[in-house]
Amino acid sequence: MLNFIKKKIALIWAKKHLKETRNFKKNALEDQEKLLISLVKTAEKTLFGRERNFEEIKDIPTFQSQVQVADYEDLKPYIEKIKRGQSNILWPEIPEYFAKTSGTTSGSKYIPISKEGMPFQIAAAQSAIFHYIAEKNNADFVSGKMIFLQGSPELEEINGIKTGRLSGIVAHHIPNYLQKNRLPSLKTNLIEDWETKVDQIVKETEKQNMTLISGIPPWLIMYFEKLIERNGKKITDLFPNLQLIITGGVNFEPYREKMNDLLGKKVDTIQTFPASEGFFAFQDDYQKEGLLLLTNHGIFYEFIPLEEYGRSDSAQRRTRLTLKDIELNKDYALILTTNSGLWAYSIGDVVRFISKDPYRILVSGRTKHFTSAFGEHVIAFEVEEAMKATVEKFPAQITEFHLAPQVNPAEGLPYHEWFIEFEKEPENLDDFRKNLDEELRKRNTYYDDLIAGNVLQPLIITKLKKNAFQDYAKSEGKLGGQNKIPRLANDRKIGDFLENFKSEHP
In angstroms, how far is CA 204 from the centroid of its own chain? Predict the structure, then answer.
């Protein structure tokens, strides 16, 4: 009876929520402009606001002329002041949290999250679930057990600011109605070593009625493989009531076939786009491609055409577009201004709009993850789509892959080297290789020109042993959590490591 009531209430909440979201989908442009002016007004008296004359800013063009696009290194001097206990630096008072992440040239990043910013992180995740429930007209999963994968919820303090991984911070804000059904235990969540942690999660969950599982695809695959290894059953046989998978952080498509194989049958999937800097988008219709951009969640967005973002002349001359200016099916570097004190902040993600009514995006890559050793500027979206099209034509299962340029081969022309860990190889690897090259040529005219002009030879595939990518992640101390291995690079750092894991089979 209790479960019936829970499901009924969830359905009522979801449908009410959907009605409330219609306004923001229609009023995105207006909401965005109002939001920016409100953010600027709020931060007028901060150090950053005083230095950039925020009191003069009454519209978007003035903001763009007075606030330059910044990355973490640009904002770091301000963040260091906050870490030393100073207030009113980027945002009024001090942040509620620092989300600590790895990934810059100078070590860890400390991303401020204000007391105004944190509720939007939670609200966006809830909204994603409510949209699914309303669309499906089914809330059965609320009566079962759920995993929300997270880092350790243990937080340290830096001058009164609670600091830790975003997923660990979020753990402290999961609503009460989900807490009782949530796994794994706190003791398991506190385990630092990733493999040990996953083994323990397997033990805690394998006999449970799992109905919702959330995590990034590489983690899900690792978790599912360990479950299958221990129990000898596909995941939907082990968890017959598994209804929903929530994923984010990377493009799901290249993992879809492998996931479906491990699952045994189709399970509904929602893709999301969260980060320490904010929760930007989620799949509002689980049956349709694209993520709904959250335009009323405390974040003002700007977009720089990708071809301009990467150029070496003055950053000041790069075009900064707002929502009203964007074009469909074009790649843009994502720039954020947030209610946690990030101002015109380049997060490093690349997005592509597939709809303007409402505004829906695909995450198409990272500004720093591309291959352009020969001037081709191939991005993640292009290699992922090329791989997807090839796998459809020549069936195979891919665990993971990485593209690196080979500029100085021992003999012959340079080439793109694709390091691929196959779960299941295609029947004819050479046909697969030729098709993959053709698909990439279709998607990138510069690459096509280089092949046609005999500057490059067609791509070469290097097959890898099982767990090669896990071993690479482990060597970098980045196994698990929200860590992702880049699908492509402009150098051979990852490629040279993977060379040691070539498959012995021809």
Answer: 27
Cα separation of 178 and 11, whole Å?
A: 15
Distance (Å, whole) CA 466 – CA 117: 41
In this structure, is residue 293 part of a structural domain?
no
Whole-structure pTM value: 0.81
**Residue 36, token pair as written in the block:** 């920016």
376 and 471 together in one domain:
yes
How far apart (Å, rounded) are the C-alpha atoms in residues 282 and 288?
11
Identify whether the C-beta of residue 141 lies closer than 8 Å to the C-beta of residue 243.
Answer: yes
The total number of structural domains that make up the chain: 3
CA distance 319 to 304: 6
| pLDDT at residue number 114 | 96
Interatomic CA distance for residues 163 and 148, integer angstroms: 20
What are the tokens at 133?
């429930």
Question: How much is the average pLDDT of 207-213?
Answer: 95
Alpha-carbon gap, residue 490 to 492, rounded angstroms: 7
The boundaries of the domain holding residue 81 are 14-91+298-366
Domain boundary among 224, 250, 282: 282
Q: Answer yes or no: is 101 within a domain.
A: no
With tokens 């003791």, the residue in question is 187
DSSP 477: T
pLDDT for 491 equals 87
CATH code where residue 220 lies: 3.40.50
CA distance 5 to 487: 45
